User: Fold this.
Amino acid sequence: MTTIHQIRNIGISAHIDSGKTTLTERMLYYCGRIHRMRDVKGGDGGATMDFDSIEARRGITISSAVTQVRWNEHTINVIDTPGHIDFTIEVERSLRVLDGAVLVLCAVGGVQSQSVTVDRQMRRYGVPRIAFINKMDRTGADPQRVVRQLREKLHCRPALLQIPIGRESRFEGVIDLLSMEAVYFRDPDGGRVERTAIPGEMQAEAETARRDLLDLLSGFDDDLTARLLDESVPDVQSLHAVVRKATLSRQLTPVLVGSAYRNTGVQEVLTAVTRYRPGPADRRIFARDTRSWSATQAARVSSADVSATASGEGLSAELVELSAVTSAPLVAMAFKTVMHSFGQLTFLRIYQGQLNRGSAYVNARTGSAVRFSRLVRIHADQREEIQSADAGEIVGVLGIDCASGDTFTDESVQCSLESMFVPEPVVRLSIEVVRNEDHGKLARALEAFRREDPTFRVSTDPETGQTLIAGMGQLHLDVYLEKLQRDYACECRTGRPRVAWRQCPTRHVPFRHVFKKMTGGPGQFAQIQGTMTPISPESADSFEFADETHGGCIPREYIPAVKQGFLDELSRGPLGDFDVVGIRIVLTDGAHHENDSSDLSFRLCAAEALRTVILPEADVRLLEPIMTVEVEAPAEFQGSVIGHLLRSRGLITASENHNDLCTITADVPLAELFDYACELRGVTQGQGTFTTAFARYAMVPEDVAGRVLKQTRS
Ligand code: GDP
Assistant:
């Protein structure tokens, strides 16, 4: 039987093509979960974790599949995090429920843009990491360079626990610097691990590397420092303990090397996971006490809140600490929902207590009790029915109705683990059915997608009445369009993808506005006065409101209506029908009328004030999403790639050459990137590849704004 100390909930994250799927596949094989290794992107149906056929065809991993394996008397739940950045929400969701992660890096490519983004997300959720430098068999493999990049680009303290035996095509094993043994992976499948003495010609190199490692480790442990000064040899177990302690406190990132494809080093990664990753009881988890909460508060969560609940930093009285014991009341969070033909499959992480089949639990968001009649353990697309599950575990529940991010508790506690940080979508396109009779199908499909993915949004264009879908990038939306056709047999036409523009004021505006309607019946009267100040449109709360009125000039009960009136108007502005952000309103004065004032009159007054008085005076500017683009191409194309990025209004942030390949990183407006795949092919004779990640919103230069806006309206 597994105790909570023997559970590891880990994620594997990586830049696309670093070998994450291959590594996962090999792990499943060595743990006996699958009996045949399959090659990723091969013709035999693709890897086990990529169980969705769209994913298999595109060679990317979208849905976070969860799978369970056993290694060294530990249960490891591997939560597959997607590599493609258009699926950020999937990464955020899985990070929320992980206790640790393995960061896979390519020995040649090193730390690439997506690794930087994923690392930022891991920091937000306080997830400790291990790095695995994969593809040591490739020409140009350079682990030292990757370690340097870990230090410089990710600002972590990497500790190389192994050095490779042989390089490139002669890579044959690793030297474990803690036990000072050579480790080889024998048999055609690398399944037999052989630990032997270090080959003579590598002894000196291994000793130098070990000295460096012990020096680094001694910074985390006084006993070790004393032993090193004494020149006594520390035992392996105590070294593991130091690495574990420093990793759990996120001060150290252990680094392993290997080649998943060549079956070298994978078992050592599994052992490192059991040795250095935290178990569910090693992390402090906080939930919010919701006894005094209203539904709207529960729904509104900023990114700052997320990191506070994930790490306990900025702990407030509202936060309660959970305890990962079975005897405590149940607290669990749904972190993913998937629609299947048999109904909804919900992935739950249990933080506290025990989940039992047949019991009813309360959804903290809706307040209603839900009976859990089928519990399953999940392995890619196979399910195993179970009766109960304990704190620390990840399980599936079949047939319940809830949204991802919902917290379930037993009735004796009221708390919420909160929603996760949900980024705003940046691309939008219109969609309509080709055949009239498919309207129902489209509505059903969009509702299902929206439920499983909060970054996928559905709305109606107020001008044309068309249905709009929005997401984190073109690929993100393409995948859903393909699903529509495949799973729902719903043929659709789409419009051109549009950027999700925003607008923000740049000038401080004092205002005074009177709203009066006196035509028959009871009249409507409201008067408000105050100031509007621009705030950073990037801040978590892009609208702030403060009431500084006194003396009852506006009765207190009308103040929420004033705020609501402003909020009502934030979906359009002088530049067009898109969000207005970056506004702080301070209400300083006003007036009301005994008989003719109401919530409605104040709400309409504020909305009208924003539209007709404040925004026209505020010098409103256009904001656009900027993406970080990383291009890799043969070095001879460096000049033309850079030239093209500059013409696309790009700002080059880095350009590196390595073994005849160049890597160029640039910040480029999303509006210029819609045909980039095609354009890059032209510029590099088909030999360039690229990835994009949303970086931030930025103000569009005025000379460009006019042209850009005209394009979007055309
Ligand atoms: P993912 O996109 O990170 O999931 O990466 P994949 O596992 O799909 O691997 C991308 C490509 O790299 C595939 O063609 C793999 O066969 C290849 N690959 C994975 N691991 C290694 C390795 O250790 N050495 C070499 N040479 N190729 C590898």
